[in-house]
Amino acid sequence: MKKILNKVPEVTLAFWIIKIMATTIGETAADFLNINLNLGLVNTSYVMAALLIIVLFIQFKYQKYVPWIYWLVVVFISVMGTLISDNLVDNLGVSLTTTTICFGSGLIIVFVAWYLSEKTLSVHKINTVKREFFYWAAILFTFALGTSGGDLLSESLGLGYLLAGSIFIGTIALIYAAYRYLNLNAILAFWLAYILTRPLGASIGDLLTQSNKDGGLAIPTGIINAIFLASILGLVVYLSILEKRKSAKISATAS
User: Which segments cross the bilayer (predicted)?
Assistant: First the structure.
């Protein structure tokens, strides 16, 4: 198996901030394309699937972590995960309970196959093409699962976006506390938090953009998309600068 440099960024505070904003865009951008631009769920899905394939191809071509392309893939996968869930629920009439169970089962299957093949689920060792394939498959399922699970709590169970988001924040905080003080396995803690930040981001997106009668703040999706994309861009530029400095330091040390 061809070895490459690790293709995943370090898990820092910036990582989680960008991830949550990317998941929020996954919710709001899908709605913007589907509703505001009148593309419809099916056409939006075709467009986003094509773009995702392109950016994934570029991501796999690189032999190391490149911030701008990595986070571009995350944003597109976030949108695609939302569209997959919405197509099943809105177009095919599948219940949110069913999609949540199916996506959860799919994610477990990916994790089992990944572990049986590679003996690890660590994101610090995404250094082969096979591991990267498993990684992105898992990411796609986490986004689809998060969309369905988040909608199930906030809409089907009637908790509302604010309460549902608060529940996700509290659960993530408990996971961090268990990792920090109770020696919860780091890999398990990462993936649990990663899964939960998806419905958290979706709840934030819906809270900001849905109508007042539906429990939202009715902020136009175009404005939210612009603000969050600009914020992500700024953080990615910052991470790119850090990555260049890190590479330069390694090169200077090696020489």
Answer: 12-33, 39-58, 65-84, 96-117, 133-153, 159-179, 186-205, 217-241
Determine, yes or no, domain membership for 80: yes
- 207: domain range? 13-254
Residue 49 maps to a domain: yes
Is the alpha carbon torsion for 70, 74, 75, 77 positive or negative?
Answer: positive
Q: Do the beta carbons of residue 23 and residue 200 sit within 8 Å?
A: yes
For 162-171, write each residue's pLDDT tens digit: 888 899 999 9
3-state secondary structure of 128: strand
Q: How many domains does the chain have?
A: 1
| Those residues with Cβ within 8 angstroms of residue 152's Cβ, 6 or more apart along the chain or in another chain | 96, 97, 100
User: Residue 169: CA atoms inside 13 Å, Cβ hemisphere, count?
Assistant: 9
- HSE toward the beta carbon, residue 158, CA cutoff 13 A: 0
Contact 228, 238 (CB under 8 A): no
